[in-house]
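Protein 1 of 2
SEQ + STRUCT:
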Amino acid sequence: MTTVDHLRQVRLGNLRTVLLALVDRPGSRADLAARTGLTKATLSNLTEPLLANGILVEEPATLAGMGRPSKPLRFHPDGPVAVGAEINVSHLAVETLGLDGETLDRHLVPADMRKVPADEVLDRVAALVREVSGPRKLLGAGLAIPGVVHDGVVVRAPNLPKLVGVPLAEGLTARLGVEVELDNEANLAALAHLWPKHLAGEDFVHVTADVGIGAGVVLGGEVYRGASGFAGELGHVVIERNGVRCTCGSRGCVERYAGLDVILREAGRRHLDSLGKALQAGDPKAVEAVRNAGEALGVGIATLMNLFDVPTVVLGGSYAVLYDHLSEAVQSEMDGRVLAGGERHTRLLASPLGEFAVVRGAAGLITRHAVQQPERLFA
């Protein structure tokens, strides 16, 4: 490495440090110097290009105690943004995220996507992305799919077979003119609980459901994907050897007992809102359907707990909506089946991000890369 290359790497490393500090919270140059260990001169040298390019903004001076007034730096409210998009069995969703982690706009459009051709799906996603991103610079887009992903292509998606083998990332890039990163929905929902803030610690499993069920496994503050990207396929953990036939070709998979479509069918309801109202009214059929699903889900989650030994389970998506009626059955199964349960009670939490965790994580995938690889901000 030449001296010039070395200096460039040092500068990028320092810039990354400053940006990460600002993601944590705004601060004056003096405050940032104290938090990062960099000199004020170095900070001024690093932040000037960010200010000139509309990435940061300097707020009016404020007096806090003795000394000179400080001018806090923060991410520009009209600065570059990232968009997260989700293609799910029952809906399309998008969210715009600033570099500071603030949600700027979001939309969720109910739609049955199971039989829609890939080109039409991508056209509809692209239109939604343009709608929420507006005129601001778009850093890129994260795209979430309920399936196994490899090199921008869906290699397995039992509930969205028309998208298997399609280069979705490439197709959306062609429509938007920006880089698109494709990942599994469960992984991205888990990432939303890590970036920009840790909402469930550094070791947890995030479980969410639509027709299928996915789990994002987080170990040591990083999403664990496994060697082939199949880690966290909770929906296809077998809990009954000769049980109900699954779309994956196996039998007795968790999703055939605890998927949202199964819960709705057993409860005699068509939509999640209707199910929620029935549960509030104490409808016996709805209560039993959710309890049965919770028991099946708890068996599957206990298997993950015994494999990964993490202290926290976060229920997201429709499970977060149903949490008050679902959690008791899930916790009961976990308490009886998790081997570490006698020594340490496993926490069961409802996600604070609800149904938008997936798109928030998809957008966060892009903002995280932009902060960790600052050269992207000036591309």
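Protein 2 of 2
SEQ + STRUCT:
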Amino acid sequence: MRAAQVQGFGGPEMLVPVELPDPVPGPGEVLIEVAYADTIFVETQLRTGWGREYFPTTPPYVPGGGVSGVVAAVGPDVDGAWLGRRVVSHVTGSYASKATAAVTSLTPVPAGLDLLTAAALAHDGVTATGLLELTAVTADDQVLVLGASGGMGTLLVQLARSRGARVTALARGAEKLALVRELGATAAVDITAGDWPERVREARGGDGVREAMGRDGADVVLDGVGGQLGAVALALTADGGRFSAHGAPTGGFATVDTAEAERRGIKVYGIGDVQFGPAEVRRLMALALDEAAAGRLRVVVGAVFPVERAGEAHARIEGRGVVGKVVLKV
């Protein structure tokens, strides 16, 4: 099978095309002919050797964890009804033309939804829908989204708005700010501005009645950026609010002042809170796929690369020049 393999820790050039033996499904597994492989920022970090205390990887390895495609074969104890079905799944080593997956990890792709969109939701769709449930966003909430123009950020903006919340979106540059407004953000702020926290406080909601981030701050802060930017956002959270530090593209998760959070009654969530079990993953995946199939959730795919050019895909992701998702075509 065709694959892209990390042959040593380092830059994008360490991710090269290779030919590997075809995998064979074992008991409880299926073989997927992969159409598209999802990419997420953390995969670029793992390629450099970052985060091995959380993700023990050793080169050479095939990166990636989410695919869409068609079931081509089943293991000895798997119902043959899965053959030929279009599915999305979490797998190990998804940057490849074939992948084995546990049958319990499969979510059927709804009729009318293309496999490109399904792959783009493989991770971000699950995490975004899970985050909105975890933080219990309602129509009464003011929500602040950091990293709003990325694959998951674009989903969070829409999902929060679909619940009736007012959303202030943080992004970089005019193109990304225009996108998040188009997706429904009631206010958009450029996070590259030195005074962005003050701009967030001054941003006004769409109805012109209440400040989007008034004196009390945001009821819910969804931090997909991490680092110092995420840490600063804690001060923009309302007393009694909810703060999710789930992103680390700046090089690490936000270091939250837990004493301040406790003093102000802020509920803090971390990356561990969005590590869902198999049944929850399938439920959340199905919710995201159904929303996209119904046209209620727009999935923004900014670039598609062939798997043989996975290194270029990583370079684009790291350069933060892509709006929305980067997906590999296999």
